[in-house]
Amino acid sequence: MTKPEQLFLNVSLSDEATFSNFFSAPTSENGLAVSSLQHFLNDKNEQFIFLWGASGSGVTHLLQAVCHLAQEKKLSFQYLPLRELVGYAPDDLCRGLEELDLICIDGIEAVVGRADWESELFHLFNRIKALNHKLIAASNAPVRGLPIQLADLSSRLGWGLTLHLHTMTDEEKQTALQMRAKGRGLELTDEVAQFLIQRLARDTNELFWQLQRLDNASLQEQRKLTIPFVKKVLGLGQRDIH
Length: 242
Known about the structure:
The protein is built from ten helices and five strands, in the order αβαβααβαβαβαααα. The protein is α/β, with parallel strands linked by helices. The chain has two domains: 19-165, Rossmann fold, CATH 3.40.50; 170-234, Orthogonal Bundle (Helicase, Ruva Protein, domain 3). The chain has a five-stranded parallel sheet with strand order 2-3-4-1-5, sandwiched between helices. Strand 3, helix 5 (115-131) and strand 4 (134-139) form a beta-alpha-beta unit. Helix 7 (170-183) crosses helix 8 (190-199) and helix 7 (170-183) packs parallel to helix 9 (204-221). The longest helix has 18 residues, at 204-221. It is elongated and about 55 Å long. 34% of the residues are buried. Mean pLDDT is 90; it is low at 1-8 and 238-242.
């Protein structure tokens, strides 16, 4: 991954954040969004994408999946989680980014409403467009739902394709959990998967994080994932975790 020389960013991608590790029914709206993202790097007709979805819908996962794909294609790219980078000066953060083949900006909502950030992002869009490079901007809300002060920035965010990720149903979360478990070499039965979804916060980020805890415990204790074992590892007794 090539980074601009002006600023070193200690930002890494999750190894699990790949397209093959993301569940969506192919004919669903989420499936169509995933397909658009998978083909984005080769699509000469699309330069910008605005991706939005509620927390836990998979926005960050898919942004990083596009970055993994860019890496496979030996393209230069940068993933920018603005919720973590909001403390940087925006002109320092964005300087030179337009030189990269792909920029993925995550968490636009963290900086909108700030004149310095809005101005810098507006100019970054223009620089990227001039070089015919690609950008994906992501948020937890649609453009019209963001408190953007700079009208020109709102316009830029709507330049390209807008994709909406819907929160998974419980059935989809079960399939996604079992797919993720299989990738880790774990057997996650329907009964245990449903138990996790019913007892834990239904945010997929939380579910996948708890699955990682269970994977580690299973390896250490050489135990299968049964409901009693899950209760023990996650501390689930009579009271549910929400």
